[in-house]
Automatic annotation (TrEMBL):
This is Transposase. It comes from Priestia koreensis. Keywords: DNA recombination, DNA-binding, Metal-binding, Transposition, Zinc. InterPro entries: Cas12f1-like_TNB, Transposase, Transposase_put_HTH. Residues 338-407 form the Cas12f1-like TNB domain. Residues 207-326 form the Probable transposase IS891/IS1136/IS1341 domain. In the C-terminal section; belongs to the transposase 35 family.
Length: 422
C-alpha cells in the first residue's frame, strides 16, 4: 500500500525561482504535447471518438527549445508526458463510448448559425494549460536514493534532483521509519510550497477480528447535509462546517468577478488584470487549498476515530461517480467528501483488522423499518421522518437514523453468515 505524507517546504528565493521555472517548463512541454495532438487530429480529419495517438518522447520537444535543458530534473519533462497520457486516457474512457459531444457554446452556434465545429469544440480533449490556472507542480521519482529527507544541525531538508543543497522542510509529523520513499511531488499553492512524499509499505495482511459484538458494529448512512448519520443517530457535523468555508469562498469569488468585469481591455480585447486582482486571486487559491486541507483533515480524524472505536463499519454502495443518478436520488454530492471518507474508512479498517462492509446496491436501507422490517414503498425523498406503515409497529424515527440502523443490522447479518455469534 502507498501512503502520501505531505509537508510544507520553505525554499529560499533563489530556490523558489528555480522551482517556478521547473513548473513553467512542465507546462511548456505539456502544451507542446497538446499542440502536437491537435495538429495530428486536424490532419486526419478527426471528428470525435477514440484517440489512437502515439505519444512521442519528451525529447521530441525539449530539443527544439534551448531553455528546456538539463538544468531541470528530467522528471519535469517526463511528468508532462505522464500527465498528457492521463488526459488522453481520460478522454478515451469518458467519451469514446458516447457519440461525439461538443461544448455548449459551439452547440448553440451550430444550431443557430450553422457553425461548423472544429476539433477545439469537442468536449473533454486535453486542453492547453494556461499560466493563470495551471497546476504548479511536478513529480520526481526515486532512483538511487536521489530523494531523501536529511537532518542537519537540528534542521530538516528535502533533497531532490537539482537541489542537492536541500530545501528546508517542516517535519510536523515524523516520516515512518519503515517503508520505501517512491516519489516526491513538489507544488505551489498560492504562496505556499509543499511536498507530498509517496511511501510504499509492504502489504502485510492483518487478520480480521473474529469475535465482534453487536455494539461494536456501526452503520453510516450517507447524508447530503451532514456527510453521514450513524446508527446511534449521531451526525458528522460536517455540513455546517462545510457551509462556513463555502460562504467565504462565495464572497471572494464575487469580489473577483466584480473586479474582472471592471477591468480595462487592451487593444486586442484581452483583460488587463490589476495587481490587486492578482493578489486577491492568490489569496483565493490559498483559501481553496486551505479549505481542502481542512476538509481532508476532518475526514482523516473522523475515520480514524470510527475505525478505532468500532470493529465493523457498514456503508451503502453508492456510485459516487454517477452524479446524474445521485441527483435523482436526492443525494447531491457537492464535493467528493463521502467518496474520500469511504476510502479512508476502508484502508484504516483493513490496517486495524476491522471489518469494512458495503451493503448491496439494492439493499433498501431507507425504505425499510429498522424496528419491524416493514417496507415503506412510497417513502418520498422529502420525508425527513420515517413513519412505519405497519399498524402494529408505527415507529416514528429520523429518516437517516433509520437507514443507519438498517445498515448496522445488515452488517450484523453479514458477520453472522461468516460464522460469528453476535
Ligand atoms: Zn415498523
Amino acid at each position: 500500500m502507498t501512503f502520501g505524507y505531505q509537508y510544507a517546504i520553505s525554499p529560499t528565493d533563489e530556490q523558489k525561482e528555480r522551482l517556478n521555472r521547473a513548473f513553467g517548463c512542465e507546462r511548456k512541454v505539456y502544451n507542446e504535447y497538446v499542440a502536437h495532438l491537435y495538429t495530428e487530429l486536424e490532419a486526419s480529419g478527426f471528428a470525435g471518438g477514440f484517440i489512437r495517438h502515439k505519444v512521442p518522447n519528451y525529447t521530441e520537444f525539449t530539443r527544439r527549445f534551448a531553455f528546456l535543458d538539463r538544468s531541470n530534473d528530467s522528471f519535469v519533462y517526463n511528468d508532462a508526458k505522464r500527465r498528457f497520457q492521463a488526459a488522453v486516457q481520460k478522454y478515451n474512457e469518458t467519451f469514446a463510448r458516447k457519440p461525439i459531444q461538443y461544448k455548449k457554446k459551439a452547440r448553440n452556434r451550430m444550431n443557430t448559425e450553422g457553425y461548423i465545429p472544429s476539433i477545439r469544440d469537442i468536449k473533454g480533449l486535453p486542453q492547453f494549460h494556461q499560466k493563470k490556472n495551471a497546476k504548479h507542480s511536478y513529480t520526481t521519482n526515486q532512483t538511487n536514493q536521489n530523494i531523501r529527507v536529511i537532518h542537519e544541525n537540528g534542521a530538516v531538508f528535502l533533497r531532490v534532483p537539482k537541489f542537492p543543497e536541500g530545501i528546508s522542510l517542516q517535519l510536523h509529523r515524523p516520516l515512518p521509519a519503515e517503508g520505501l520513499l517512491k516519489k516526491a511531488t513538489i507544488r505551489r499553492e498560492g504562496e505556499r510550497y509543499l511536498v507530498s512524499l509517496s511511501i510504499d509499505f509492504p502489504s502485510e495482511k492483518v487478520e480480521k477480528k473474529h469475535n465482534v459484538s453487536a455494539n461494536k458494529v456501526i452503520g453510516l448512512d450517507y447524508s447530503q447535509a451532514d456527510l453521514y448519520v450513524d446508527s446511534e443517530g449521531r451526525k458528522a457535523n460536517y455540513g455546517r462546517y462545510y457551509r462556513l468555508i463555502e460562504k467565504r469562498q462565495r464572497r471572494m469569488n464575487k469580489s473577483l468577478a466584480r473586479k474582472k468585469n471592471a477591468a480595462p481591455l487592451d487593444e486586442n480585447g484581452t483583460i488587463q488584470y490589476s495587481r490587486t486582482y492578482q493578489k486577491q486571486m492568490n489569496a483565493y487559491r490559498a483559501l481553496l487549498a486551505k479549505s481542502k486541507n481542512q476538509r481532508k483533515d476532518f475526514l482523516h480524524k473522523r475515520s480514524y476515530q470510527i475505525t478505532n472505536e468500532y470493529d465493523a463499519i457498514v456503508v451503502e454502495d453508492l456510485d459516487l461517480t454517477n452524479l446524474a443518478q445521485m441527483r435523482k436520488l436526492g443525494k447531491n454530492v457537492h464535493d467528493n467528501g463521502f467518496g474520500m471518507f469511504r476510502t479512508m474508512l476502508q484502508y484504516k479498517a483493513e490496517r486495524n483488522g476491522k471489518h469494512y462492509i458495503v451493503a448491496d446496491r439494492y439493499f433498501p436501507s431507507s425504505k425499510q423499518c429498522s424496528q419491524c422490517g416493514h417496507l415503506h414503498d412510497n417513502l418520498s425523498l422529502s420525508d425527513r421522518v420515517y413513519v412505519c406503515q405497519n399498524d402494529t409497529c408505527c415507529t416514528k424515527i429520523d429518516r437517516d437514523y433509520n437507514a443507519g440502523l438498517n445498515l448496522k443490522h445488515y452488517g450484523i447479518r453479514v458477520l453472522k453468515e461468516q460464522g460469528m455469534t453476535l
